[in-house]
Amino acid sequence: MKKLYILSCFLVFGIGGKAQMEHETCAKSCNHENMLSRPSQATYYQYPSLSKYDMKYLWLHLAVEPGSNVISGSSQLNVLAVSPMDSLILEFKDNMVVDSVWINGEPKFFTHENDHILIPLGNIFPIGAHLQSTVYYHGTANTGAVYNGTYNGLTYTASLSESYQAREWFPVKQILSDKIDSLDVWIKTSDGNKVGSNGLLVAVVDSPNNKKEFHWHSRHPIDYYLPSFSVGNYQEYINYAKPAAIAPDSIPIIHYVSPAPGYLDAIKPNLDKTPVLIEKYSALFGLYPFHDEKYGHCQANIGGGMEHQTMSTMVSFGSTLIAHELGHQWWGDNVTCATWNDIWLNEGFAEYSVYLAIEKLPSLYSFTSTTEYMQDAHDYVMSQPGGSVYVPNDLIFNENRIFSSRLSYDKGMAIIHTLRWEMQDDTLFFNTLKTYQNTYKNTVASATDFKEVAETISGKNLTDYFNEWYYGEGYPTFNITYFKLGSDSIVLLVNQTTSAPDVTPFFKGLYELTLQFPTGDTTVKIQLSQNNQLFRFHASQEVTNILVDPNNWVINAVGAIQYGGIIPVTLSEVNILAGADCQALVSWKASNESNLSAYIIEISKDGNSYHQVKTLYPHGDGYYSTEIPLATGHYFVRIKINNRDGSIKYSDILKVNMQCGKAESIVISPNPVHKNLAAQLWWNKDEIISIRVYNVIGQMVATQKQQVFSGSNSISIPTHFLSNGIYEIRVHAGQNNIVQRFLKE
Ligand SMILES: [Zn+2]
After folding, report:
1. For the chain, which ranges sit under pLDDT 70?
2. How far is ligand 1, taken at its centre, from the CA of residue 578, in Å?
């Protein structure tokens, strides 16, 4: 179904929408949401007993005149019991008058209330029993289910049953999963009119009082909302599609349009696009499903178009509306969504059929490019932050939501394009479409069914895709910082925020970027699996800008694209391990070291004041592992990153608890000493110590104070002024006193 609002868009009040149809005067400010007065479904109820039978055959035999919603006649519905049945229940609106009900040729008592006809059967019909129910009725069908009026020289009456309005004009069971296996529609109307309906026109029979009966017959399974009629003072135009698969046969396309003078000539160029579209879609999706019957158009002012099986009802004949309703013959009619939750399978794919028509048959369309066409859809989707393509259960009776042009149509179309992009192979993509059509032809399917076909054909796991784009809400906004790395590379830091983060915090997937350089552009692909992911690309020139998704494969917005300078080093897997030998092992991984000068390991007892314990220089492979001596106690450890440009960064802070029990000691090396005494002092406390040197007769010859830290400390004392001989070094603080002899040479 497709709503247009060509004229009404100047009359309705609504939020911003999107005009997709060429030739339409509807500007971008008009609203595509359902503004027609459809009967409310707020309290829709279905008797569970409807599931006890399978609809096999429907015969409608009605009298209808153009310009009137008065309907009279009978319907025959043949059903097969799939559970034991003591009654037959049909859905039929209470405003219609039921005159009599017959079961297998016998008149039956019935009640008609709460929009259901209940017919007690008198005995139990077992599983497998056939029942033929015939209901005679008359009444004025509600507007919104049956439309009548005059329009451009045409006087018409036409049905429109999607989504819950079949029961407004014939008794039926409105459960999508039960297709009616075949259908006959007899419509009696005044001579001079024509009646369009489903399948083949097998007879036009004279009837008393200057009436004619049109008999349409369809042998294809048909969902409950797709039987239709359109009665009017039509003129007829026929052209033929010739898909290669049935050559030299052809498919007739019957157009019933307004008889206004000059009108047919004016729309003929567009009507003549229909055969070309059928041929193209047959090549892309599989042969037109109803090729042994026909395709056609019936004109009526229903506010847009409706994909009645084999004969779409059309308010007008814009090229995109023709493509949309024709696309539905595959997407909606041949394979129908199993529940209204998955209306995407109808509307998203019908809209994508329009996109494909523009892509594959550009000479038929006036759009500058498919990219521009898709951009319009993206812009409309992003006019609000949330909403899923999937229709949630609590909105399943809300027709404005089911037929939301923003979500079911435009976002639905856009994410099919994204799926095609994810597959990176048009053969797989179109094989998916064909296989799905072939697997579920004449029946119904869910989005899960489609997902399974797509996964089988493509070999890809599409769970993330469906969770993010179909069941999820919103869209991503990209912020990209690009860094220079060496002289021939750039690194992109790709950040993403989302418009509905509580529902969909991140959109993984494949994205296309165009890197713009002074002398030309380079287009690259990135596979995004997490936020703030880094990507490295060869670039011998300065990047001037980056375009995100230049060909509109994925709904997205762009935030900041900025130059981040020289790529900073990044550390990962930073760890510390306490060893029993009073050594702690510090290790880390580093990348992007081009601006790095040195790593300095710093420790702290209180987490505030740090001191340096070790310096390491970059050595190329990015893996670092080094021991630092630490006495018993709790420590904070961090890696200071000294960059060549003078900037400094720190790693995250590590904590370690050392238990090593080593006694305080001093090791002089080398010994004998020459100009300077060098020693390693192991101390178990942070404090200021006194270091004194005595000669053999006990005279103090040198002294200094030094801050030491728990663990290993380097000591250096000038000894160049001492004469050769034996000396003693005494390290002292509080109660601690260490003595060690050395020889000066
Ligand atoms: Zn549609």
Report:
1. 4-43
2. 67
